[in-house]
Design goal:
The complex is a heterodimer of chains A (288) and B (231).
Chain A lengths: L1 H31 L6 H18 L4 H24 L6 H23 L4 E2 L4 H4 L1 E4 L2 E4 L1 H22 L1 H11 L1 H5 L5 H27 L1 E2 L3 H16 L4 H21 L4 H16 L10
Helix pairs in contact in A: 1-6, 1-7, 1-9, 1-10, 1-11, 2-3, 2-4, 2-9, 2-10, 3-9, 6-7, 6-9, 7-9, 10-11, 10-12, 11-12
Chain B lengths: L4 E10 L2 E11 L4 E5 L6 H9 L5 E6 L2 E2 L5 H6 L2 E4 L11 H7 L9 H7 L1 H5 L10 H14 L4 E5 L7 H15 L4 E4 L3 H7 L2 E6 L2 E7 H5 L2 H8 L3
Parallel strand pairs in B: 3-8, 3-9, 6-7, 7-8
Antiparallel strand pairs in B: 1-2, 1-4, 4-5, 9-10
Helix pairs in contact in B: 4-6, 6-7
């Protein structure tokens, strides 16, 4: 029983990380039709921004995370305005630029901070544990899950209660028709990059807490699972991404524990294949 | 009468197809101007080119202002309301959200007019637009164009696929709307065109082959057959 509880909460924590990355990816792809391979860079900037402001400016954990999130958001907005905006509707060039940027980003971070993992500042309460149904659960799992729930709720409020959210939801369905109603959809593109960048940067800071360190390639490795989550959940659906992230996190943890360490990753790919065969549009997409 | 919309030498190329080959005509500031022609002649592409939805070359002037180089949203904000051929409703949004999305500027937005013309839209406000019938979706599409104080409506095949009773309702609405704002209408239904159109433009293979009074064309069976293939 205690193993099941620990695995479930760890899986949910990992799923929370995947969701934070995938939510932005999904919105960006759904609205702007951009497969953003540079999304891991936003995560890495958030993680290193948090680490740097803690180590060099003496910030406490929460101000350091805020600093990291602001840095990640600013990076996302700059990338959209300077590199993506001139390439809308040019899919191949977008892929080349975002893949190149992700590789250059890792190299830049290595040059600036070194290739070795850096010990991440963790608040004292996050290093403790809580006993639940006999399982000793690290507190950082609750932090990850709580953050993802808050971000999911905030995104839903944004999408359902604001005019920009309405534009984003409509744009995911039919971008051309949104412009034909007199709406400058490019502003919404920048906004979804900002939201995606903020969520990814928060994921970067929380990944630092979860793994205990930060390294230049962390964003890239997490991005692969986030892409799987987006595809399983259905492109453009934040709720679909949330459900898929939970599924992927749980499957990964349980199969890693009850089968073998490498099986966790393989089982996620198997899950992706099964979902795509049953519902090609993903869980929240159209079953075409 | 000074035209409200003037189109000259409009060309659209998509891939290797030269779809519009120098289309030019003028739309007067009152009444309904119907764009007619056989399937594939370039009628829908003409509306899309005016709105900048497809890449084009040529001149498009709205009330004397050259709008050809503007992006779609900027053209629409100058007072063009658009109801596309496929209705363009957002299936995942409610009827009310579809209307709210179409609000431009600070208003006033003419919900009273929209709900007076289409009372069903008020009753179905919370319903997802994707679950509406074709006729109800057309009400949403036309309702969105009436919400703002537009200078012209561009309406593409509003009766396509609709039941006869709904066609009559749509015709009533367009007839009434045309008393307030000029309409550029693409339509295959000649009975509807006969009823509401004042002027016609006939397009054939990407070029204008006839312009004039609607009554002049549609009362001449030989000319109608020659230009449109039907009498």
């Amino acid at each position: 029983m205690s193993n099941v509880v620990l695995l479930a909460l760890t899986g949910l924590g990992l799923g929370a990380l995947y969701f934070l990355i995938a939510s932005g990816l999904s919105l960006i792809f759904g609205l702007a039709d951009v497969l953003n391979f540079a999304h891991g860079l936003f995560l890495a900037v958030g993680a290193y921004g948090t680490w740097w402001s803690s180590a060099h400016l003496g910030f406490g954990f929460v101000p350091a995370v805020v600093f990291g999130v602001v840095a990640g958001t600013a990076t996302a907005v700059l990338v959209e305005m300077l590199l993506i905006r001139p390439l809308y509707r040019r899919t191949i060039e977008q892929v080349l630029v975002t893949v190149g940027l992700s590789l250059a980003g890792v190299a830049l971070l290595q040059a600036a901070f070194g290739a070795d993992p850096l010990t991440f500042p963790r608040p004292e309460w996050a290093t403790g544990t809580t006993r639940i149904f006999g399982a000793i659960v690290p507190n950082d799992r609750f932090l990850l899950i709580g953050a993802a729930v808050v971000v999911l709720a905030a995104i839903q409020v944004f999408l359902r209660r604001t005019r920009f959210g309405l534009i984003v939801r409509a744009g995911v369905e039919d971008r051309t028709m949104v412009t034909a109603l007199g709406i400058n959809v490019r502003t919404a593109f920048t906004l979804v990059f900002a939201i995606g960048g903020a969520a990814a940067a928060l994921a970067g800071a929380l990944a630092g807490v979860y793994f205990g360190n930060v390294s230049p390639g962390q964003g890239t490795s997490l991005l692969i699972f986030a892409f799987i989550v987006v595809v399983i959940g259905g492109m453009g659906s934040v709720t679909g991404s949330a459900v898929a992230a939970v599924l992927v996190g749980l499957v990964q943890q349980f199969t890693s524990f009850y089968a073998a360490a490498g099986v966790g990753e393989a089982s996620v790919v198997l899950l992706l294949a099964v979902v795509l065969l049953a519902r090609p549009g993903g869980l929240a997409g159209r079953a075409t | 009468m000074t035209p409200l919309l003037e189109i000259a030498d409009l060309h659209v190329r998509i891939g290797s197809s030269h779809i519009l080959q120098g289309v030019g005509f003028a739309v007067p500031p009152t009444g309904v101007t119907a764009v007619l022609g056989r399937n594939g002649a370039g009628k829908t592409t003409t509306l899309k080119a005016v709105l900048g939805i497809v890449p084009k070359t040529g001149t498009v002037r709205l009330d004397g202002e050259d709008i050809a180089g503007l992006p779609t949203h900027a053209i629409v904000r100058r007072g063009l309301g658009y109801a596309p051929e496929d209705r363009g409703v957002f299936a995942g949004l409610t009827v009310t959200e579809n209307l709210r999305l179409a609000e431009r500027g600070r208003g006033p937005h003419r919900y009273d007019l929209v709900y007076e013309m289409f009372p069903e839209l008020r009753q179905r406000g919370a319903q997802r637009a994707g679950t509406l019938s074709g006729g109800q979706q057309q009400m949403v599409a036309i309702g969105r164009t009436l919400l703002n104080d537009n200078r012209m409506l561009l309406v593409d095949e509003p009766t396509k696929g609709l039941a006869p009773k709904i066609v009559t309702e749509v015709a009533d609405v367009l007839e009434r709307a045309a008393r307030e704002v000029p309409i550029l209408l693409v339509e295959q239904n000649l009975a509807l065109v006969r009823r509401i159109a004042d002027h016609v433009v006939v397009i054939e293979q990407g070029a204008v082959v006839h312009t004039g009074e609607a009554a002049g064309l549609l009362s001449d069976p030989d000319l109608t057959r020659e230009l449109l293939g039907v009498a």
